[in-house]
């Protein structure tokens, strides 16, 4: 296993290219979106899980890690969520083939497991916003802090110098002389080691002992805004499960699951917008989003477009527009054929809950 990890980390660019090619070719597999597509979906799920494992191996490489990144010894939440998402489509196809409409029971169980894992990640991360549903670690990057941590005694530390900076070479030389002097002193006076260790313990910040925020800390510091932020994230995490449970109750073509799911998304996003918008009143209690969190907010807005692809809206409106476009472009050589293939893929993908769930 260690040999495989080493190979993946050394050839990560080649691995990424190969994975992208393989995942793209799965859309061209025969019998895709047919009644007997268990084989193609199994291939797709296996490729997705292998891709997630490879990404986890690359992200946890010692040379690739940075302060605040996931500890390789901790539970791999991102890998677990990615694997569940890849398996969910296979579970849906197999359940539909053998049990028909009872497939929603199996999908509900899968969504419930994802909710449990995401809630655990949300808590263990200090109640930070989940990026890509928890597949991407939410690590705040502050260039100023990084630079200040790299400077020791006014000189750039290892890896902190750029170009031919004479101060960098002088700093490294002084550091080497200092270490040599400490080693010589330790040889003659063993108690010197203890004094040096005590001084370093005082001067170095205890980064490993930083406590992650708890729910009580967030509520006490942020007040109502803290409660709304946590509630908004919980709504975003549990929305797919609520949607599936409502489909089990009312059916896929009923408007109630569609409307309630959309309402949950709007309410959760409304809470998030309220606690992050700038203002002079209660400014200290507002949440300041990092660049990655702002990108996540944009991604969640784009996910609303999937409501156009979900029943019953798709069957009543979207599908008619797609088929009308196909008929309009059909007489045009090449373009008509390409449009027909795209519409066929869209309609086929729409029949799968997991492709349009945004979960």
Automatic annotation (TrEMBL):
Source species, domain of life: Eukaryota
InterPro entries given in the database record: Pex16 (IPR013919)
Keyword Transmembrane helix: yes
Subcellular location: Peroxisome membrane
Record-linked Pfam families: Pex16
Record-annotated membrane-spanning stretches: 226-246, 252-273
Alphabetical keyword list: Membrane, Peroxisome, Peroxisome biogenesis, Transmembrane, Transmembrane helix
Family designation: Belongs to the peroxin-16 family.
Listed name of the protein: Peroxisomal membrane protein PEX16
